[in-house]
Amino acid sequence: MYTVDGDGAATETEKIMARYESILESPAYRVLKRGPETHGDHAGYIRLKHGEKLGLLREYRGATYAEKYRVGTVLGCAIENWEDPDKARERNRANGGEDHWINGCGTSLTSRERPQEILFLIEVGDKVVIEGHRYEVVSERNGNLGLQPV
Q1: DSSP for 51-63?
Q2: Quick one: which of 18, 28, 78, 138 has the fewest CB in 10 Å?
Q3: CA dist 17 → 22, 32, 35, 48, 84 (Å)
Q4: pTM over 0.85
Q5: Cβ atoms 113, 148 nearer than 8 A
């Protein structure tokens, strides 16, 4: 399933898979669990970055599936859109926005084959750090995930 480069080095997918435990797999995605030695800091917080894809495990009629989420930051969006990060942060704060968030991702059915997505396990109660700011992942009333400053 995975290939090795001509010089014997593993592909990026193999490198990722070797560092994490696979929790759930489907044709569309694979959910990986971080160990304490990967993506963590000395206080046990999980480091997240803008654009990182996350999976929250849910149960429905006896089957386990992953709801997909994506980490977002004002600075990350500004950089993606070639905007001045300082001006983007000022505009966001003036409008009452948050600097960091977790968005739910939509799902679609397709007739085309797509590469399997890699999602990192996230759970309510996880302690995370985004751009140096510490949060606890909380469940919101509408079923989304939120970030509570710690």
Answers
A1: T-EEEEEEEETTE
A2: 18
A3: 8, 8, 12, 18, 36
A4: no
A5: no
